[in-house]
Amino acid sequence: MKAIVKLKEGVGNVVLTDRPEPSVKKNEVKIKVEAVGICGTDVKIKHGTTWSNPPVILGHELSGTVAEVGEDVKSVKPGDRVVTETGNVVCGHCYYCRTGNFLMCKDRLSIGYGVDGGMAEYCVVREDIVHILPDEIPFDAGSLCEPAAVSVHAVYDAVKVIPTDTVVVIGSGAIGLLVAQLVKNFGATVIVTGLTQDEGRLSVAKELGIDYTVNTQKENVGKIVDDITGGRGADLVFECSGSVPGVNTGMSLLKKMGALVQIGLTKPTMEIEYSMLTAKQISLIGTFGHKWQSWDTALKLMQQGKINAGALISHRFPMEKWEEAFDIAESGKGIKVVIFPNK
Question: Which CATH number do you get for residue 44?
Fold first, then answer.
């Protein structure tokens, strides 16, 4: 089968090649991959700046059709439309596994970098992480269930959003625009920020009904927040860029006793104005990945039209044009780039 593979560590070493079609064990599900999104993590693996376990098939944002199931699988059958979580290998008995926080397991290996992922014609995962994809959700939009679940985990599990809140979302990529939609569902006033290069993304945010979009290279976001809140500051900030300026800006925009939820992956070390934690008595909360409930909720919201994931797909490519797809994903010219392995 065709697959996009990281062959060995280091810069590059990613190729489109042939790999044996995987077989299923008794508790596993083989998925014919219909659509797979390119995440920033995939780009970083290509450049050798984040961990992977080569040789490994890339891709952890996928949707598809069940092609085959192991003898013990009961919850899905061949022909079912599905999506899959990422934590394919976990110990199953540690504190985190027993409390449903599988991505915190020290033995966890996720598809796309720890074990083979979805940038291939077929992908095999354990039954426990497979979810039925409702018929109302197209396969391309279904490939965004993973970032949607990440966003649900950050918004639903980290803080409480109420209709009177003023919320700033820093970063207008796929995660930022999904978070903005989720927060807007609670009735809050939502501000999405970006840079000049993000003008197209900010336009999409407006089309999605977000209250304010701010190009921080042209506009003073602090003044805008003060005008909206009467000088009090934002109740909540969701930091989705992972950048040092993003984190510092987010902390400065918060009201006293406000909270910043860090979703975007940052550098290992970064300089922030740490004194604001005590001076403003603010909370910094980190979130990572998702839980089973995050997927269940994300799928229901997508099915009900309360998350518009399809609007975030800016580019679509067949597998053969994977290099062009990766270039666009890295350039930031679009929002979400999706590859179709079986077309």
Answer: 3.90.180.10
Among 155, 136, 309, residue whose Cα is nearest residue 237: 155
What is the b/e burial string over 272-287, where b = at least 16 CB atoms within 10 angstroms of the residue's CB?
Answer: eeeebeeebebebeeb
Distances in whole angstroms, Cα of residue 212 to Cα of each of 74, 186, 320: 47, 16, 39
Q: How many domains does the chain have?
A: 2
CATH of residue 241's domain is 3.40.50.720
Q: Is the peptide bond before 245 cis (omega within 30 degrees of 0)?
A: no
Task: Report the alpha-carbon distance of residue 156 to residue 115 in Å, rounded.
Answer: 29
CA distance linking residue 277 with residue 250, whole number of Å: 12
The pLDDT confidence band at residue 216, using thresholds 50, 70 and 90, is: very high
What angle (nearest 5°) sits at the alpha carbon of residue 311, between those of residues 314 and 118? Answer: 65
Which 8-state DSSP code applies to residue 265? -
Say whether 224 sits in a helix, a strand or coil.
helix
Tell me the pTM. 0.96
283-286 and 254-262 as β-strands: parallel, antiparallel, unpaired? parallel
| Contact (Cβ atoms closer than 8 angstroms) between residue 263 and residue 248 | no
Angle at 92 between CA 88 and CA 97, to 5 degrees: 95
The per-residue pLDDT for 343 is 86
- Could you tell me the end-to-end alpha-carbon distance of the chain, in angstroms, rounded to an integer? 13
At 333 the pLDDT is 84
Query: Is the distance from CB of 58 to CB of 115 less than 8 angstroms?
Result: no
The residue type found at 229 is T
pLDDT at residue 332 in the model: 83
Amino acid identity of 109? L
